[in-house]
Amino acid sequence: RVTCSGGTASLDMMLNLIAQAHGSNLAAEVSDQFIHDRIREPTDRQRMELRSRLGVSHPKLLAVVKTMEDNLEEPLAQTDIARMTNLSTRQLERLFRKYLNTTPTRYYLNLRLARARHLLRQTSMSILSVALACGFVSASHFSKCYRECYGRTPRAERAPG
Q1: What is the spatial distance between Cα 71 and Cα 152, in angstroms, rounded to a whole number?
Q2: At CB < 8 A and 24+ separation, what contacts does 82-91 make?
Q3: Where are the alpha helices (DSSP H) in 23-103?
Q4: What is the dihedral of CA 96, 98, 103, 104, to 10 degrees?
Q5: b/e for 111-140, b at 16 or more Cβ within 10 A?
Q6: Inter-CA distances, 45 with 12, 34, 39, 149, Å
Q7: Domain boundaries defined on the chain
Q8: In a 10 Å sphere around its CB, with 0-12 CB exposed, 13-18 middle and 19+ buried, how is residue 21 labelled?
Q9: Is the model's pLDDT at 34 over the cut of 90?
Q10: Digit-coded pLDDT (tens) for 50-107
Q11: What band does 123 get if pLDDT is binned at 50, 70 and 90?
Q12: How far apart are CA 122 and CA 158, in angstroms?
């Protein structure tokens, strides 16, 4: 049994298997049929770089967002994030307002909620487990934030149809 994740990861995996079994020329031809520009190596990153995803190249802002993404389960205080990236909280707020048109707190919450939405849709984790995995202290607080963001409860997100 072989598994993979990501939008085109299964295609990349199959192209690598074809290359191993039948050679790189056949794999390249199959890749071309799918208008797939290159066969990714298994060690290549699946996600776009942070600067490409955000459309921002400010190094301090990228460092802050990376710190946030790395700490979804146990969210850091804004003051801690600012200190870790050698910024004042005011500088941090200005960066987010200028480049992302939001506040650091709102951005961090949206990251956590997006992760929660992914877990609700892609796993069978309980709602409480999803809440805890995304840094919420209770299922009720998580449900309230989720409903405010997505217009439906986590339970409704899981409902068929």
Answers
A1: 25
A2: 85/60, 86/60, 87/60, 91/60
A3: 24-33, 50-54, 59-70, 78-84, 89-100
A4: 10
A5: bbbebbbebbeeeeeebeebbbbbbbeebe
A6: 12, 20, 12, 29
A7: 1-46, 49-161
A8: exposed
A9: no
A10: 778 888 889 999 999 999 999 999 999 999 999 999 999 999 999 999 999 999 999 9
A11: very high
A12: 10
Distances in whole angstroms, Cα of residue 145 to Cα of each of 31, 85, 95, 149: 43, 27, 24, 6
What is the spatial distance between Cα 64 and Cα 86, in angstroms, rounded to a whole number?
10
49-161: CATH topology is Arc Repressor Mutant, subunit A (1.10.10)
Beta-carbon contacts of 11 under 8 Å, excluding residues fewer than 6 positions away, are 34, 36
